[in-house]
Design a protein that fits this description.
Strand order of the largest sheet: 2-3-1-4-7
Number of strands: 7
Strand content: 5-15%
Largest sheet: 5 strands, parallel
Number of domains: 1
Oligomer: single chain
Number of helices: 9
Order of helices and strands: EHEHHHEHEHEEHHEH
CATH class: Alpha Beta
Bound molecules: adenosine monophosphate
Length: 223
């Protein structure tokens, strides 16, 4: 099964995609996590991506597509995967279709089975990002108001110290939202036309949103 979680920054894609990947036993692929790890490790990819991430802009499509192709070729993707933060532009979605949509699955729904669109208003996104804390070791996210860790400042899973992402600062968040509206939101129409989009109200509690996402995946699988 191949899924995409689409939505503005702060809509809960990270939290929900980790949970969906666990329940469906598919790989979780966050392009943001891969890029942040590359920046930390100082690799060539990290050096290419760093300034774009810091400013809240998008890393060029050709860099992203090469990175994703390499990631989905790994063994843990054989049962499928869920993309979190990819595709982010129409050209990325088109490249995904042209590389993965061909072959035995062509004409049978294309490269992606379901796109789950997490709908959340801009004000709520800004509020959520301001309270977000992330574990740099495993990428797990928490929210100091709605989803705090069990022990303050520590990751529930690995115990690592939580940090606030540099690009969650107010100035950068505004730019990320602008970039989302201009470059990523058009993907809603792209996947809607293909009959593969489900809209989910992301303003509800994490458990309610998860139940709705899972339901959409299961209904889509039957269709
Ligand atoms: P995220 O963790 O998904 O919010 O991504 C953090 C940052 O990484 C974004 O603001 C972009 O600079 C970069 N990034 C992540 N995924 C992509 C993508 N698919 N295309 C371009 N840039 C990306």
């Amino acid at each position: 099964m191949r899924l995409v979680l689409l939505g503005p920054p702060g809509s809960g894609k990270g939290t929900q995609s980790v949970r969906l990947a666990g329940t469906l036993a598919i790989a979780h692929i966050s392009t943001g996590d891969i890029l942040r790890a590359a920046v930390r490790e100082g690799t060539e990819l990290g050096r290419k991506a760093e300034s774009f991430i810091r400013q809240g802009g998008l890393v060029p499509d050709e860099v992203i597509v090469g990175m994703v192709e390499e990631r989905i070729a790994r063994a843990d993707c054989s049962r499928g995967f869920i993309f979190d933060g990819f595709p982010r532009t129409i050209p990325q979605a088109e490249m995904l279709e042209s590389r993965l949509g061909a072959g035995p699955r062509a004409g049978n729904g294309g490269a992606i089975d379901r796109v789950l669109y997490m709908d959340l208003d801009e004000e709520s996104c800004v509020r959520r990002l301001a309270g977000r804390w992330t574990c740099p070791a495993d990428g797990r996210t928490y929210n100091q108001f709605s989803q705090p860790p069990k022990a303050a400042g520590k990751c529930d899973r690995c115990g690592g110290a939580l940090v606030q992402r540099e690009d969650d600062r107010v100035g950068t968040v505004k730019n990320r939202l602008k970039v989302y509206l201009e470059q990523t939101r058009p993907l809603i129409g792209f996947y809607e036309k293909a009959g593969r989009l489900n809209r989910v109200d992301a303003s509800r509690t994490p458990d309610q949103v998860f139940a709705e996402l899972l339901n959409a995946v299961r209904q889509g699988a039957k269709a």
